[in-house]
């Protein structure tokens, strides 16, 4: 009976959310592979709301995964440690991997969302496929979850597979990874560090390379593998032309096979050509050459150098005006609507297929309706799958909400609190540049004057 009692009680002990301290923080978050840490303040209302969800998720995880843990740190007692990790608001939730900060948690702030996030990290980052049935099932899952799917073949266990798994662990929330040792499933192609690097550059998660550098890209509809002589001929002609140009030293040049960059070409409105498609990426903006010729390319580069090009913006058609409390923005109206300097803007980036978005949408619209009479606040909806996402906004999951004060459009604040109507109103009431007419700073309705 004693042994049985220990077996029953052990999960309950492990289920407790670990209370961290400044001195023991590093050692505690290193004890298991993944630790999700909630940085909080005892007086914080949102923290009080999140606390029971965090604790319940911890109980569920204790019985399901041994390599993950939930922990919390009181920033009123250990402020120095919180500052070390850039915590400026509460609650802030961060994921640590083997004791090192890994990434921000920006998922749902409820029991199911937290549990699902950690369960995903508790599993191997890449699923091993043994049969063609495994392959079919795995790729079908990618289609149903609407997630990118990456499958790689490795002849044997080794450093290449380890590198692949390291990459997979970094993107485990956004991409489904799998590997196989059976060449009949996928086919054999040697995997090297260079090949892995090439793959990384071909993913949408490396858009920082397109935004930070001044990059001119030529998209061709033939690859070196399929048509090396023809591709090299055209590429060599282009390189001779580029070398003859002046004042291009700050531009980097890249050659790309259109089949590897379908999404980028779709964003340019040129998924089907005609090829070559030429574009410049700089500071988060993209510029498209309308019709390629050597002469037009020279003119295109010179206009870019002189700041005379107009950025290309991926955008839905501008919708007809409506009497709804929310405003729908598209790529071409984002600047006008969201960066309107006369109003604070609460914006929801969503995707049409996203279940969480469908759940939040009526609540977001109800909050907008309740604040419809507020002259200084605007609620905005934005389909992030059909329109460009301007800087400085970062959207890696749906829905993502930001509050952009009218005087600080370049530093919008991400909303990470509960997603009920009253919570949304409380957030807007607290963050609004001017106090709302109908609500106080705590989000409580003001009493009408007698």
UniProtKB/TrEMBL annotation:
One of its GO terms (cellular component) is endoplasmic reticulum lumen. It is an enzyme of class 5 (isomerase). It is found in: Endoplasmic reticulum lumen. One of its GO terms (molecular function) is protein disulfide isomerase activity. Residues 1-15 form the signal peptide. Belongs to the protein disulfide isomerase family. Residues 11-123, 314-433 form the Thioredoxin domain. It holds the Pfam family Thioredoxin. It catalyses: Catalyzes the rearrangement of -S-S- bonds in proteins. PROSITE patterns: THIOREDOXIN_1, THIOREDOXIN_2. It comes from the Eukaryota. Keywords: Disulfide bond, Endoplasmic reticulum, Isomerase, Redox-active center, Repeat, Signal. Its EC number is 5.3.4.1. This is protein disulfide-isomerase. GO terms for biological process: protein folding; response to endoplasmic reticulum stress.
């Amino acid at each position: 009976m004693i042994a049985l009692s220990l077996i029953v009680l052990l999960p309950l002990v492990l289920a407790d959310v670990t209370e961290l301290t400044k001195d023991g923080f590093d050692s505690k978050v290193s004890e298991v592979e993944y630790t999700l840490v909630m940085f909080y303040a005892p007086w914080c209302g949102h923290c009080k709301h999140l606390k029971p969800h965090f604790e319940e998720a911890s109980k569920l995880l204790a019985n399901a995964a041994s390599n993950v843990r939930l922990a919390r740190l009181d920033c009123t007692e250990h402020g120095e440690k919180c500052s070390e990790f850039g915590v400026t608001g509460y609650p802030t939730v961060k994921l640590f991997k083997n004791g090192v900060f890994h990434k921000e948690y920006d998922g749902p702030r409820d029991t199911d969302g937290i549990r699902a996030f950690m369960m995903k990290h508790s599993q191997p980052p890449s699923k091993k496929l043994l049969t063609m049935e495994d392959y079919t099932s795995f790729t079908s899952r990618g289609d149903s979850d609407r997630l990118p799917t990456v499958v790689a073949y490795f002849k044997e266990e080794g450093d290449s597979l380890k590198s692949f798994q390291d990459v997979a662990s970094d993107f485990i929330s956004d991409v489904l990874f799998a590997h196989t040792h059976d060449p009949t499933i996928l086919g054999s192609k040697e995997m090297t560090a260079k090949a892995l690097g090439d793959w990384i550059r071909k993913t949408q998660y490396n858009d920082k390379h397109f935004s930070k550098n001044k990059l001119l890209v030529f998209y061709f509809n033939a690859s070196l593998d399929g048509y090396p002589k023809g591709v090299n001929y055209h590429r060599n002609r282009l390189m001779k032309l580029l070398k003859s140009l002046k004042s291009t030293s700050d531009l980097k040049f890249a050659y790309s096979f259109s089949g590897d960059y379908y999404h980028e070409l779709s964003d340019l409105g040129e998924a089907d050509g005609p090829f070559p498609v030429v574009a410049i990426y700089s500071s988060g903006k993209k510029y498209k050459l309308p019709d390629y010729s050597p002469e037009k390319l020279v003119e295109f580069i010179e206009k870019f150098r002189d700041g005379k090009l107009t950025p290309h913006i991926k955008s839905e058609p501008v919708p007809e005006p409506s009497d709804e409390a929310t405003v729908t923005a598209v790529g071409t109206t984002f600047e006008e609507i969201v960066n309107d300097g006369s109003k604070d803007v609460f914006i929801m980036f969503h995707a049409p297929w996203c279940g969480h978005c469908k759940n939040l949408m009526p609540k977001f619209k109800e909050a907008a309706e309740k604040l419809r009479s507020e002259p200084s606040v605007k609620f905005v909806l934005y389909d992030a799958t059909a329109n460009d996402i301007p800087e400085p906004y970062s959207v890696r999951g749906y829905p993502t909400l930001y509050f952009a004060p009218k005087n600080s459009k370049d530093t919008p604040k991400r909303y990470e609190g509960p997603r009920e109507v009253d919570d949304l109103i409380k957030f807007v009431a607290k963050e609004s540049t001017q106090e709302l007419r109908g609500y106080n700073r705590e989000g409580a309705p003001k009493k009408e004057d007698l």
